Amino acid sequence: MTAKHVVKRGSGRRTRAIDGGGAVAGAGALATVAAVAALGSTADDATYSRGHQVADTDGVVVTFTTTVPGWYTPRTRHIHVRVHTGGQKADGTQSAASSSAASSSTAAPSALRRPLFVVVGHRHARRLLTRHYALGKGTCMSRADEVLAEVAVDALLAEAELTPKPGLPDAREADFGALRWSARSLTPGLTAMAAAARRAGGEPGRGLRRELGAIGRCTERTMARANAGSALHHGAVWPLGLLVSAAALAPTLAPDRLPTEARRLAALPDGAAPRIPSPGSAAASRYGAAGARGEARAGFPHVRRALTALRTARAAGAREPEARLDALLTVMSTLQDTGLLHAAGPHGLREAQNGAREVLEAGGVGSARGGAALHALDVRLRADGLRPRGSAHLLAGALFLDILRDRSVARAARPTALAA
């Protein structure tokens, strides 16, 4: 009995064990089922859900009910089935394979694919993931990599939940749940990027840059699949992926200095990048704007500006949502958003920039005049179909650094608290 002949899919969760000679596992055959637990696994910390069944007289090996299996790179979520045969052939004679054991695996049902966030994509990215992260081969992702990805996704979720954002999707949207799915679908890819950077040992090179680019494009495809073809956070992988990679590349570096480390990565060429320009890069070339690449190669100046605005607003007594909205408007007021340039040209970009400045000059979101100006700006941008997504993604990058800083401060204060 060979592994490829062990499991023959039937309807539902009923599987039948057969071998190449037509042997069917009869009564007494033992089938064990195992799947990675729902929280996932790494090579050094695997937790599995296991169970076994004894075949019935019809040769049905196992009928089981289980949780949705967890994920590990680069496999789709799947369930392992192993059959220990004691079977016989259909004519009643004993099978030569009666004492053998074989195994196979089956993917989770297609109806569950949308929320599973499987990392799939073009062949190059998939080959990279398979080579470096397959269990038992190379270096797998650590818990530290997962934490960095989770913090980045938390920052993106905080940006998505911020309401009201002028011209941008927020909690007022009818399908706000899709925004959550979209953000969480980035977790596996960002984890893989952190693992790749950590393995580089502090020295970024062209090989790492190529690998990060491949994983990033793969993650963009994952996000589109998780949202039925609509990439709701398209463009967020670039700033967050670079900042996550910088944090993994230099784990002892202060969070406020990570944009400088990310600049080193962004300055390296990506030899496998698509030759066809994206709409954003085409707009940047046409209008002479810095674009996403220019922002990263300059060390994310607007991320740093957002951090400064965030902390200034907090120090002035602003509530957290108001401080974050002021930080968003600070970015909008000066960013040359290539998404806006592509959609509406310089006129659309100036409308968003001038409107953001009006809110800030009126006293910010927390003031009565500033709140009224924000509402008017939101109405105008939505009526014109203008979506300043680039500013939102850079705000998410600033929130990522802000969360990391809070965590590092908490870790530094912990020994003092224990000593006291």
Walk me through this protein's architecture.
- A 4-stranded antiparallel sheet has the order 4-3-6-7, with no helix packed on it.
- The N terminus and C terminus are likely disordered.
- It is globular and about 75 Å long.
- Helix 2 packs antiparallel against helix 3, helix 2 crosses helix 4 and helix 10 packs antiparallel against helix 11.
- It starts with 6 loop residues before the first strand and ends with a helix.
- The protein is an alpha+beta fold.
- The longest helix has 31 residues.
- The protein is built from 14 helices and 7 strands.
- Strand 1 and strand 2 form a beta hairpin.
Brief summary of the model shown:
50% of the residues lie in helices and 9% in strands. It has 420 residues and is of the alpha+beta class.
Order of helices and strands: EEEEEEEHHHHHHHHHHHHHH
What's the number of extended β-strand segments?
A: 7
Helix content range: 40-55%
Shape: globular
Biggest sheet statistics: 4 strands, antiparallel
Q: Roughly what is the average pLDDT, rounded to an integer?
A: 75
Distance between the termini: 65 Å
Radius of gyration: 26 Å
Low-confidence stretches: 1-26, 38-46, 86-101, 110-139, 416-420
Taking strands numbered 1, 2, ... along the chain, how are they ordered across the largest sheet? 4-3-6-7
Counting H and I runs of at least 4 residues, what is the number of helices? Answer: 14
What is the structural class? alpha+beta
> What percentage of amino acids are in beta strands?
5-15%
